[in-house]
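fyi for ur records
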Amino acid sequence: MSSPAYDTSPDRPSPKRSRKARPILFYLALLMAIILVPVLAFSGVLLQRNNIAQEEVVETFTVATTRSVLQSVEREIAGMITTLRVLATVESLADNDLARFHGHAQAALEGTGSDLILIDENFNQLLNTRVPYGSPLSPMSDPSSARRALETTDAVVSPLFWGNTAEDWVFNVMIQRPGGGGGREVVILTQNAGNLANALLTRELATGWHVALVDGTNTVIAASQDTAESGEQLFVPLVEGSGTSLRWREREVEGESYKTITQRSVLTGWYVVAWAPVSVVASPLRTTLLWLVFGGLAIAGLAALVASVVARQIARPVRGLARQARSFGAGEPIAPVDYPVKELALVSTALADAAEKRREADAEVRFLMRELAHRAKNQLSVISSMAKQTAQGSASVEQFIENFQHRIIGLARSTDLLVTQGATGIGLRELIKTQIDPFRPEDPARIVKTGPAVRLNVQAAQVLGMAAHEMATNASKYGAFSVPDGRLEVNWNRAGGARLHLSWREHLPGFVPPSDRKGFGTVVLTKMVGGTLAADVERLVHDDGIEWVFSIPLDKIDPDREHSEDTDDEDGN
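which gave:
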């Protein structure tokens, strides 16, 4: 019998020699030699170059950090400018409804740390979201920046100043109001200077370095911890000229030498200044040189000993991991092994967890397939019933296609809710809103929806979604949405704790009672809601409009009911 290790057929030449397997200790020793020999050979050159290289690294890192701080601040200001331009064009401001605009701005800026101010051309505050609307307001605290905003269509960023209303150091981002409102006005977003501190405090600087954000007068807006307070003058003077340095400068300040880096923002006119004493910058570099020399010698002495110990600690667990991997490939359960090497023990635990998750995933896939089949069956049943009822009420193929398409769209809206909320039940309020929204009038006061939170199962959501779609369609054609003064009231409650009572009440002037002919909408409301959900359905004709009243048993809409039925079906199979 031929050996399986080699193929001796004429078409394939036999290997000359198999590669010799070597123990882990051999490769660890080889790795040690590859690392140590070049280090020892070039140690002299590295010692000479290390000081310069380390300084270049710190310099590059610090320049990049200051640039990152500047970019972070500019992103914040750019975001404020975008927000300001959006708020300056909202409808309530265009209508000069300042009370509504005040509330809209407060809601939009909640949690952003910003507040909105509107001033006239005389720098009087018309509103300020820091205080309730209608509160007495003094003239703004920074008229010079506002004057610049009135002279340009671009956004203007102010220097730091003390805000009388905020009672803190603040800055403003302002634009001239588009279109005005009977006179030139300026819309302003204002923030406390402390809000920008995160842009500095979250940036990691080299040891001994500090950073500050200052305005064009060298007044501190924000600074890294324990260096300067907002409103103070920074002790490091600004660099004359462009104010932007790509390398650090050594400067003499108050008798001490400092390394400084300055970055200027074109967007704001502010500066980011980083500094450190020269003595502090040089100290860690000298320490690094000493550690490099002594550390290299120590590593060389310990490497051989460590290599032999590590080799023994790795070899046995690796063979055990190989056995576990083969068990995992075969789909067998795996028990984790506490190997002496922590990383290998983690791999063993990960293999055991992966094997368990694989079995759980297989079970979950089977469950999801059953769930998908069940949902698809329900959906097809609803569509089939809807097609039959639509066909009975259609006089032509074209009418059938149009009506059926509209009802499919309404069913799709309900299906979207099933996808997002199906696991916990579909909210009745969201379902009704989804079906009404395509038909609703612009005035939200014409629609009133009141009722407690009610969750629906899939079947109830599909049937009530179709019912709401039909009633909303009829409202847009003949009912509350078809005339300018029509109103719709949708109310629901748990009547007696055993049934859901739902009322769809339309009010419209000049109401003409409809005929007694029953169309598809009536069939949906009476047969599908009444038959599928065992509901009592009643249509009431009032002097000013139609009212549909539904009384549905709560057990027919309970989200847990569907899951229990699914379990029964699985047990039956």
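The radius of gyration is 38 Å. thats all i got for now
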